[in-house]
Hints:
By secondary structure, this protein is of the alpha+beta class. Helices cover about 50% and strands about 10% of the residues.
Amino acid sequence: MSWQRATTWDALAAGPVVFHQSPLQIVLYRVEDQVFAIDNRCPHEGYPLAEGTLDEQCQLTCNWHNWKFRLSDGVCVLGGDHVRAYDVKIEAGDVWIDLSSPDPQVQQAGILNGFEMAFRKRDTGRICRELTRLELHHLDPEEALCRAIAWSHDRLEFGTSHAYAATADWLTLADRYTDDWERRLICLAEAVDHMAHDALRRPRYPYATVSAAFSTDAFQEAVENEDSVAAEGLMHRALAEGLHFDTLEHDFTRAALQHYNDFGHSLIYVQKTGELIARLGPQCEAWLLPALTRHLCYATREDLIPEFKGITAALAALPARAGEQNTPPSLSGLQKGGVRGALSWVTTHLKTHRVPVLFDALLQANARNQVGFDTSYQDSFDRPVNDSVGWLSFTHALTFSQAVAIQCGKFPDQWSRGLLQMACFVGRNQRFLDSQIERAEWQVTDVTAYLQQVREKLLDHGMRDPIFSAHLLKTTMAVERLINDCQPDTAVWLLAALRRFLESPFKQKHIRRLARQAIDLVGRDFPGRTGMA
């Protein structure tokens, strides 16, 4: 016990007294025959509670924002964060305060309880404060991220979302700032905020838990049949049998690439889930792997729509093994002819060229597309629905490519599907290019300085909806990694693509476009109506 004399009983008769013992400020109130002591700084924004208003129920109101605290224990009954309360004793007219530190486990439990309240409300300010309390009390703030995953995973109706994928990248960025809490805090808070956003006010969607023994064939069949109950049950059984992501990773990768899934999200989510588990530990598998399984069952299969049906024939036309040429093939056939032409380019050149050479060429073609994006498509509201493209239509090609590089590098049997799906991105975006845009306008000369500038932008992006900041982040992180392993000219294109994306207007809401498309679609059943345009 560390007792300190703070004031006298008589001094408190005139009103509250603030006791200072650096760095503490403690305000003492005398109420009838009792004395109460709490931190003087309001935990909301630091205003002095000595200037508060005390009511007959012994509740203290901070008059700046009407937060109310019980003097007896510091609990906030209206507002948010609790305030620390101190034990008090009176001896011979002197008032003493116990300044000893709380038990670390009790302290951590209290902070994490406050963190959960902040998470449930998506209170970003309090999320930052509770994470900082963990850090400054020498507790692990990343434990809070594990809790956030646990609290959110069964509130995701369709499984894994961008929130978990972005969390992996925010943690990678945070690792650059081990000695800079402000920047590290931003990264952790961004990750938590995105998870809170996706789970906010959502009911629970329980995962299935009943299954026979796990097998690869049964899992692939369940996902292929979009049978989420069977697939989730199998994953539950796999985890119960002691299987871990490293054993299951090929199954997930294969399922993700079995179709041109969900605009590339599925493979990205597989890769980022693995990254997140490696970073936070296997305890997260119990939450992340069921969510990933559910996502795979609900993912949109774009290879079943006319534009991309050619993948099936392209797979059948692939050679049994790739060629041996190391010289880059011409991109001319790849950059024209739409999806069909891009698929044909892959099947033709895989007979003669090595896989890494074709990967680099497809990567460069996608980067070239992003440099040349005609942003009038993003800004317009009067185009048909199949022309509703924006920056994310292009950035996904790069983030998907990074996932292909990692996952197919681990599992070479999946390269053919990865390359063909990269080709789909190349072909689908060709219609939306502005031929007048030159790479020279966007070329990055000092790569190190530019990427440092970009990281600073990520830490203060100003975007309210986390889906957009997530794409700024994941595109940046993908490019940073890809430029280390690609051909020099491809790296130049990738950096130019990143710069064009980050320095161009980014329209985040399309209400007039949606209104017009709604009128066009619904109005087709009402040809006699007038005044609809």
